[in-house]
């Protein structure tokens, strides 16, 4: 029998407990539930009220632990709305696709006047030929004559809507019974849906919370520290991730676990530890610390074109770069927002870095470090021969950058993402991600801002 996929699209603005309950029922009925939060949509302008990165995190936080559920962040990352007919085409090679909709979408179906007929692209055609999983919904009576030809009925009595959640949050009414605990905590941290601009950092606490621990097996100090923190571990339901090691260990940990959307609290067992907290300060107070600062930091979204023309996507927390693979210097072209700004860059390579990563390789290559919440990122050349004296550029958050190898055969280049080799590439395209962000946590009096001050004023 074919694998059956429930395609559960929606604005999930925000995703609530009602959505999770629905997804749990779907996960019992289908082999997979593919959850697709939509990007900007002409029929739902309110989805733009909260930046996509927050909506993406909330979807991961709400559905991430549900077995059989997969959250597809494509639309949020690409800032688009993929219509259901296109989603069906995208997924049909993987499974038999069933479009999930609430009963509100099929009212008037018998007269070919349902919202699917009138509001979906190719609606009438899909109505006839596609498969639908119809959810009964309190407040919406369902007439059997309105059902589409190929359907399964999922009888539910789950009250709730995102409109109600948004309204409760806006008017400062309790919403904890409408959201998962993790999503509620996250919404409060960044002041989402309050009618004001969301924050990118906030003060808070880790007190009484449980963690999962990641150590660096090659770092004895980090492995020895594990026992100290063992009483605070709950591997099954952690509230934050405790990383013991250096910045490299933190980068590896972020690469592996960022989709858990849990805050990362690092304790430095390495050298620089820019992404980490200092061990003496952590050990001198109770654990988990009562006063901390949470910072939501964007990742870089990267598309790399390999030598065979394949496009590979990835995310970088600190930086991504292209480097010469042989003794020949690299000849690169750099385009910014599609405009060729450096038609021929002769160098060892070129790097893009987030503000959070600006204290690492970007700084070593001569760029100024940026405060972590600077709404900007960096492009930096490595050992630049031509154009003489060009070193780096500060980029605004909505800038896209393309680095192209002008002589792939004679002067091959390799790409690196957060220090991990991605093999030979012809080009990379990069911009700040709209869907991938990471939360780092610092002791309140030793936050990242304080560390930057230390670098800038040589302390
Ligand atoms: N309580 C519910 N019972 C059954 N179906 C629901 C319920 N809430 C939402 N749905 C269905 O889930 C899908 C995604 O919903 P969506 O994200 O738009 O949620 P919503 O809570 O209805 O949002 P909003 O209130 O912003 O319109 C839609 O097909 C919708 O009909
Ligand atoms: O395909 C379309 O043109 C189309 C237009 C509007 C809505 N939809 C789908 O309808 C579903 C429910 O949407 P909503 O508004 O309740 O979030 C969801 O899967 C959307 O992708 C689809």
Automatic annotation (TrEMBL):
Enzyme class label: transferase
Pfam families xref list: CTP_transf_like, NAD_kinase
Catalysed conversion reaction: nicotinate beta-D-ribonucleotide + ATP + H(+) = deamido-NAD(+) + diphosphate; NAD(+) + ATP = ADP + NADP(+) + H(+)
The keyword Nucleotide-binding is assigned to this record: yes
GO molecular function annotations of the record: ATP binding; NAD binding; NAD+ kinase activity; nicotinate-nucleotide adenylyltransferase activity
Keywords for this protein: ATP-binding, Kinase, NAD, NADP, Nucleotide-binding, Nucleotidyltransferase, Pyridine nucleotide biosynthesis, Transferase
Entry keyword annotation includes ATP-binding: yes
GO biological process, one term: NADP+ biosynthetic process
Pathway: Cofactor biosynthesis; NAD(+) biosynthesis; deamido-NAD(+) from nicotinate D-ribonucleotide: step 1/1
UniProt EC number: 2.7.7.18
Domain Cytidyltransferase-like, first and last residues per copy: 7-166
SUPFAM superfamilies: NAD kinase/diacylglycerol kinase-like, Nucleotidylyl transferase
Family label: Belongs to the NadD family.
Functional description taken from the UniProt entry: Catalyzes the reversible adenylation of nicotinate mononucleotide (NaMN) to nicotinic acid adenine dinucleotide (NaAD).
The name this protein goes by in its record: nicotinate-nucleotide adenylyltransferase
Species: Roseimicrobium gellanilyticum
